[in-house]
Specification:
The radius of gyration is 16 Å and the shape is elongated. The protein has one domain. It is an all-alpha fold. The protein is built from 4 helices and no strands. The mean pLDDT is about 80.
């Protein structure tokens, strides 16, 4: 495996962590909605579900790429200096930190 493929594998792991955090948030928001039934809870459910769908699709597409699929992400590894995979990692790591913070304050 090349360094870019290792970074993409790490990105996939971070996305799986994001999926776990989002599932936890959705369960809390669903419980709150069943108790309170307000529009804010519906908005939080929609927000979390959208991020969950994005993360699941991203992991599937990364899996296709890492398993030698159709070259779906070939343009990511073609740039000089390997900034593509590292940029994906930074964005996903930032999303993971934000979701962890949201999960912490939601759980309390």
């Amino acid at each position: 495996m090349t360094i870019d493929e290792w970074i993409l594998l790490i990105v996939a792991v971070v996305e799986v962590v994001n999926i776990c955090l989002l599932l936890g948030l959705i369960s809390v928001y669903w419980r709150n909605y069943r108790k309170v039934k307000n529009e804010f809870s519906v908005g939080l459910l929609f927000f979390s579900s959208t991020f969950l769908l994005k993360s699941i699709l991203f992991v599937v597409l990364l899996g296709v790429f890492l398993l030698g699929g159709f070259g779906a992400f070939q343009h990511i590894t073609d740039d000089e200096g390997g900034r593509g995979p590292f940029s994906l990692f930074l964005l996903d790591a930032l999303e993971c930190v934000a979701l962890a913070f949201l999960f912490k304050i939601t759980w309390e």
